[in-house]
Amino acid sequence: MNQFLGFDEATNPQIRAADPRSASWVSANAGSGKTKVLTDRVARLLLSGTPPQRVLCLTFTIAAASNMQNRLFERLGGWSMLKDEDLRNELLALGEDRDSLDGEYLKRARTLFARALETPGGLRIQTIHAFASTILKRFPLEAGVSPQFKSLDDRTAGRIHEEVLDSISVNSPSTYAKVAAHVNVKGLQNLVGEIAGNRVAFASRVSEDDICRIFGLPTPFCPPETMIRDLLTQEDSDLIRQLMKFLRRGSKTDQSAAGKLENLNFSDPAIPDFSLLQSVFLFGAKANNPFAPKTGSFPTKKVRNEMGEINSRVEDYMERVSNLRTPILRAQAAAKTMTLHDFAHDLLREFEQHKSRVSSLDFDDLILKTLELLSNPETAQWVLYKLDGGIDHILVDEAQDVSKTQWNIISGIAEEFTSGLGARQSKRTVFAVGDEKQSIYGFQGAAPEKFKEMCDHFRMKYREAGQKFTEEGLEFSFRSSPAVLEVVDRVFEGRSEPGFGGATVHRAFKDESPGRVDLWPIIGEPEKPGQPEWHGAQLVPGETQAPAKLARLLATEIRRMTHPDSAESLQTENGARPIQCGDILILVRRRNDLFHSIIAELKSAGLPVTGTDRMLLSESLAVLDVRALLSFLATPADDLSLAAALRSPIFQMTEEELFSVAHGRNGKSLWSSLQERKADFSQTVSIIRDLLNGADRLKPYELIEHLLTCHKGRELLTARLGNEISEPLDAFLQQAITYDDEEAPSLTGFLEWSNNDLEIKRQLDQAGNEVRIMTVHGAKGLESPIVILPDTNERRPPQPGNLLLTEEGLPIWNTTMDSRPEVVADAIDRYAEQAENEHLRLLYVALTRAESWLIIAGAGKAKETSWHGLVEAGLLACSPKEVKVPELGGCDWPFDQFQRHSFGEWPEPVAAGEKSAAVSDSLPRWIHERAPKPEQPPALRSPSGLGGNKSLSTRKTTSSKEESESPDDAADRGTMIHLLLEHLPPGGGNSRRKLAENVLECAFPQLTKDRFLDAYREATRILDNSDLKDLFGDHSLAEVGITASLKGLSDNRVLGYIDRLIVEDDQVLAVDFKSNRNVPPSENEVPEAILRQLGAYQDALEQIFPDRGVEVAVLWTRTGNLMRIDPNLCRCALARSQAVQQKTESNGSIELDAFGENFK
């Protein structure tokens, strides 16, 4: 057995975790090689003989699945080409037993790549949603879904939400009205999205008694309005009216209170009336004793003295208001939650019915219906039995981000792994690798606590079954330098939050790699100078504001770092090298003003930058320009859209030119005025007219593509706006394709359909030599030599949405702060705690992306609880040094020095183009040798180009009109007849003629009516000839391409197209259409070129169909005569072509023979 001799303490845990003989649970720090361990395990599973189709790898994203598959294929493909010794070393490094590496084992390793490629459906490396989709499509009847269901995208789901809301407003108007009383239009849309995303919590109908119990209310439920009526009885009303008389004679405060009490609705009190009572008789939320009675403080002392005996009655009334406040708030929140559940019930029912009608499922449905399928006692055993025959090993990547529902699916599938009752008795395993510290997708349902919980679950299952279950921890980072890792450890030292319990320890595999962690001081806001009263608010962030200053400073510093004469370099395995823009990754928490300012400043500094990792189509100038033009094409009277399009890079009209066209047009449309100026703007008018002509007949995609390609719209937009417009334009085109597939296409409909913002997600993991800037969430799994965190000072407490969950998991509706009962307050506290924990985990992910150099910066007012404050505290524990700022050109540092923690010797400056001493100058020998001339592929000859005369020029059978036909016109006529015979059906009336016009109009835009009729009549005579019906029947094929090698030709490959091919069980007939005016009376007088062409067809078809007879024929379209040609005539003609070619190759002299050949 391999005892992992020669391996170190960093790789040994990886090898143990990848051992396929036991189930394994791996907790891995950032950069410790989680994906490598998983791919190693898959490779070893395949080496052990596991069929590829019985391995299931589940990942979090499509990009991660693709990356994992590429890594695995690269390794397996490499094995197939290695020598024995090299392959043996590779397998030993993987952890395989040396004694087992015999010739047969190596042979098996070399075949794994082919086996993986040939596996039906490919290796199952997919996201949990993709896997769920395959399960539902395999068992649609059991799952109760359509076998042809489609997955809804966000746009379609949003449109369905709108339609469902409209339906509820009609079918359940009272419920709709109750909900609408609490939210505006935007809030209602958000509420619908939250309900749809939390449908599991609404799965069962909750009774009023259950809601009363949760809010601590007695049953049956007493509405808050009833409680309020108890505060405004007739006796209470009389007391308040008496009090108002005294208040009107008091101070301004007393008079203000009287004004509020005048607005009370004594006859039918409601919630607003209680709010008035609170504001008058109770202290406010910010008082020392919030919402306590104003006993002894209200009214003012003078009024209290005048009130006499009713003063005590007023104070008693204050106590009653105070005592009823909590029950009323509870009842108010309970009533709101009851409305929420009624609305959610109607909404989800309508939503499910709508999706069922269109046979669609959203992403949540994929998971929920798969779980339902595996949980249903009537179907679960059957489904598990079928799956049991197909899955032996489950591997879960990024397991910390798997939701509770997804874990239930995984555990359901793995149920048989440890039961001993499965379809097979072979060893079957579960493997999971993750890191609770990197769980940052709580908004998508990630449950980091389930990582440990599921570990306990599977450990118990495997050990009860007497099977091996191992747990490994990967502490070594193969990514970051010791300097970065030490700061990370100090930042999270002593943290007890989930994922950080105990000592957080990271060990650097590259323990001698130099590194830096720089902490820049916070750039504060400048002091505001005195401004006159009339000075308005600043609508655009100024250049002197802190975020803008920080963005400009970062751009200047990056330009200094990457300058050819920079004093900064990076240490690599091959020695030091200059810093490049592609080495730098900028991470932000949100795409805020600072994010966009940094991109703008980098571009202004002339630095290559990838742009944003996500963008809305509505933010792309190129898409807006195209949409403006489309809006005009849909409505030519839309002057504003046309003006916007004319100013775009597509037409490049200046403001002065546009003004000259638009000014003084006396009520005419802008388009009319532009057409009158055609002489000045001929190209613009021509393009717009062409697009207007296509707007009614082309689909939206075709019209946009026509604009971007034929009229060079993409080229013009790219020249002005840069290469980054390619992705938004491609996304816009994809939208048009989707619209064409889903709707009846029209330009107006597309503009309305695509009006909602679509977010484009860009993959920036491989950005080339460009500065990358993205959110921390988007950078999960990425790394970079230099990482900059510029917005570490932002500390905005996360705000919950409409929905909150109680400890029991019941959804309740959020309330305002002033009317928040204990149950709501507790739920918000839990939400805030979870958000704070994820806030820390997000910082961990951000810090651990850096390999060598980490820069922390921030702008605004310093906050101790911000990321900047946390990093500063951790950095101080590392005893950092104060470093003077370097000199910058074009920008001054707002501080003189910053703190730096470093490790090792930073490499000396290396100028651009200069080699490090560690880089070898020796070049391989082949670099000095002339490259061999590439072998030219054999030329392809056309069967119609084998020489010989093509017509009977000696026969006098044509009219004078036909004689005047030029060779080009004759060729065009032949092409038209061929096209019509290819596309027109036999029989038919006006529809066939319309089709003929459309077919020929595309190929011959200037076609005259006479020429069209001439070709059309000749073609239809053929099609309507009953003697020729077999040529156009079910067994015939049109324009069949063939290629073959012909014996005796030096360039013996031919490529041709047979006009009509009839293939039967024992016979093949090839027919060539000829539109010659002179038709030979017999096969013996057929022109030589035609015989050679048919000979080539005959030879090729005899090779393709060796077991069938081959016939060739010519259909003379002028006479409708199908002339079958003797095979011997064709063979002799082809032989003559071969003889002529041989003589021509051996003789330079040229003579004309009887067949029209050039040879001597």
Structural description of this entry:
This protein is of the alpha/beta class and 1160 residues long. The chain folds into five domains: 12-64 and 122-145 and 364-474, P-loop containing nucleotide triphosphate hydrolases (Rossmann fold, 3-Layer(aba) Sandwich); 155-358, no CATH class; 516-526 and 543-613 and 767-903, Rossmann fold (3-Layer(aba) Sandwich), CATH 3.40.50; 617-758, PCRA, domain 4 (Orthogonal Bundle); 942-1146, Lambda Exonuclease, Chain A (Alpha-Beta Complex), CATH 3.90.320. The strands form eight sheets. It has a seven-stranded mixed sheet, covered by helices on one side. Strands 3-2-6-7-1-8 form a six-stranded parallel sheet, with helices on both faces. Strands 24, 25, 26, 27, 28 and 29 form a six-stranded mixed sheet that branches. Helix 37 (967-983) crosses helix 39 (1009-1023). The protein is globular. The relative contact order is 0.07. The model is unreliable at 1-6, 533-541, 915-921 and 1149-1160 (pLDDT under 50).
Layout of helices and strands:
Layout: H1 11-17, E1 23-28, H2 34-47, E2 55-59, H3 62-79, H4 84-94, H5 103-118, E3 124-127, H6 128-138, H7 140-143, E4 150-151, H8 154-171, H9 173-180, H10 185-197, H11 208-214, H12 224-231, H13 234-248, H14 252-262, H15 271-281, H16 301-307, H17 310-357, E5 360-361, H18 363-375, H19 380-388, E6 393-396, H20 404-413, E7 429-434, H21 449-464, E8 469-474, E9 476-477, H22 482-491, E10 507-508, E11 515-519, H23 546-562, E12 569-572, E13 575-578, E14 584-588, H24 593-604, E15 614-616, H25 621-634, H26 639-646, H27 655-662, H28 670-676, H29 682-695, H30 700-710, H31 713-721, H32 726-742, H33 747-753, E16 759-761, E17 772-775, E18 784-789, E19 803-805, E20 811-813, H34 822-847, E21 850-856, H35 867-876, E22 881-884, E23 897-903, E24 940-941, H36 960-963, H37 967-983, H38 990-1003, H39 1009-1023, E25 1036-1045, E26 1053-1063, E27 1067-1074, H40 1088-1104, E28 1109-1116, E29 1121-1125, H41 1127-1146
